[in-house]
Amino acid sequence: MNASSLVVLAVIGILFALAVWRVAKKGAPCECGGSHKNCSRKSGCSCCDCCGD
Amino acid sequence: MSKSVKIALAGNPNSGKTTLFNALTGSEQYVGNWPGVTVEKKDGILAGHKEVIIQDLPGIYSLSPYSIEEKVSRRFLVEEGPDAILNIVDGTNIERNLYFSTQLAELGLPMVMAVNMMDVVKRNGDKIDFEKIAKALRCEVVGISALKNEGGMEAAEKVVEMAKKSVVEKGPGKLPDVPHVFSGSVEHAIAHIEESIQGKVPLRSIRWYAIKVFERDREIIKKLDIGVGEMKHIEEHIRDCEKELGDDAESIITSQRYEFIKKLMDKSLALNEKRKDKATLSDKIDKFVTHRILALPIFILSLCVMWFLAVAEHGPGTVLTDWANDGFLADGWHLPFTTHECREEGKYKGMEFEDAQGEFAKAEATVAAWEAGEKKASIEDEETGEIAEEWDIDEAAYNAAKEFEEPDPGQFGVWVPGLGALITEALDRAHVNDTVKSLVVDGAWGGVATVLGFVPVIFIVFLFLAFLEDCGYMARVAFIMDRLLRRFGLSGKSFIPMLVGKGCGVPAVMAARAIENERARRMTVILATFVPCGAKTVIIAMFAALFFREQWYVAAMMDVVGIAIIILGGIALKKTRFFAGEASSFVLELPAYHMPTVSGVWHHTWNRLKGYILKAGLVIFPACVFLWFIMHFDWSLNLLADEEIEKSILHDLGSWIAWIFEPLGFGSWQGAAASVSAEIAKEQATATLKLVTVGMEGVSSGAHIQNFFAALGDFPKLAALSFMMFNLFVPPCMVAIAVTFREMGSQKWGWFAIGFQLFVGYVLALSVYRLGVLFAGGGFGIWTALALVLDAFCLWAIVRRGHS
Questions:
Q1: Domain hosting residue A28, numbered range
Q2: pLDDT at residue A10 above 90?
Q3: Which residue, of B263, B364, B380, B681, has the greatest Cβ tally within 10 A?
Q4: Best mutation site among A2, A45, A46 for testing chain B: the one with the most B CBs within 10 Å?
């Protein structure tokens, strides 16, 4: 595998890890524009109560 | 540090509280033009006033503890005690709204009444005398228009000022100046009660407590712990009043409140004489829209219009989706108004781009067929996967075809390369190896692009729904459905979560909290997610585009099927001993129709759309990368070549459960993988289907999914319909399932809900496929018999005599 392939693979890996981390931390994006776990009233998520936060 | 000031935003349902709350706090709480959107109170900081907390309470009609919303609001107003109240009142319906305002005034808290929709009141030519209302209710009154963001901040600043003043002056000191709205004998009894409960309640709210004791409010009497002897004495006073006025205590309070309001309105409300006895435009529209016979067809027609715009061939949704899928996210597109015939010398001179592409495809097919030793060549239709054209070939044709070069789009107009092409080109230039290229192009980008490609359809669906909601039509839909559901012992209250569910199943399940009756609430949670949500719209859009281009009504039918399942499923559940019982009451006020604002509709649409675009990056992307890996590696983690996919982990996992889907017409590892992965997020079904069919042998580009279904049997359209319906009507995504479990209150009920949804989705897909095959002449088999038996069982469950 050449260097450029490794770079692309690393970029995909980082993006993958970031996405998984973001969803694990804040929950899946919600139709209200917030996230299913990001229930701080500040974010304006209307799903706060349904997510139990 | 200064002490925070709490302002309660209270009013009737659908009076504009949440709109005002969003305007005051800069929040983006969901605003719905139907009652019951706010179930629990929400907090926000008043813009420009860090120390002021605005609390948006659920809309209620009174401070009686009957519904969940009333309990939430009452508990907060009476027990927690805000520093002041901002009472929002619908100016177009002020008389009815004041019933609640008189009760709020009795709480003895500083209060500003914000009379909303003043723009409509003025347009109607009506006049409201704020001073007289203010004097009668002992509060400040201001006119606002929450929708147009006029006057709201002034009202808020006024109430903050009053609250701060009250905080300074607050003490056990004096009785508040509250309105006295009742007749002499009632006031006399209330005065006696006030004497009895003095010291047990805050002095400022003593009148409110006394009135509640007069009404024999059990919760309040219990809380005040009034002695037996004292209660006996109070009872005597109450009974004297009842004897004198010939009614029960609670009704006396209600009717005298209305009498007080009526007198106040006679003095302070001047309706436009010309309009007084005339039917309003809303009344005229409602004559048709809520008509006993026409209402339901009009509702179905509105769904059809929405889906026609979204998925009909040559409609705006299809044109934009084709552009997104084939152009923007794939190879590229010609800038509009710049296209022209090829002017360069050569084989394509004078041709349009599409014709040149067709010629090149034919030349490629000729070369491939001749080199394979064939005497005939053919090309497939990219949309249907069927042979579109077949012709004889000879050596001369082969030699001529070899001279064709791929047409350069730049010769036919200004060509803008698509994102897919740019990614591929960048990877080629960087000499990235084929495996990594496949991971990026087929795995990561392929999945994300599949979902993003259908954003135009979702946009049109959400835009249409936002318009219907904001103009007031959706409240009518709840009214129509209440009338329909009530016939079967169900309440229209259950339909509100289902309206919310058109956007997302999670808040829909959550909205069921507003239903007090536990049985009705559980039933609503089970049924709410049968309305295809936004994520399921992607599945509908994809199958409509690939299989039902000329039958756009198939997409609209999915919504109708969802509603039919809710009604029939509700009837069947109601007949079991777990859900039997009377339908709970449903009070619904129909707001006047109004032209939605562009910003309001855009706000609703964009918020929902943003969720899907984000989800494509945050959920679909990692899921596709993961699926690509398990599709390209075996259990020993050896990288597999394209032709070795059948040794992959994904292939094995899919194959183990493919038998479950065999009766439904898509019993292959690909179908199983797509259906199971849809539990991550429903739109993942489309991304997975694209990923797992991309490497199929003998499949031309652009028609992978059609060819996959064609390879499954003689009835690809039926198999596709079955796949779509299975994924639309089985349990929703993981997040919604988790919320369902929580809202059902126990593991047992959670599993019951999931089991019921799974049964409905499976039976529906089985029946559609097996009975479809039977009618299409495909014969009768054991699965057809099973479908008929299950259908008969469902019919029995619906028509049998149930528990009373």
A1: 3-51
A2: yes
A3: B681
A4: A46
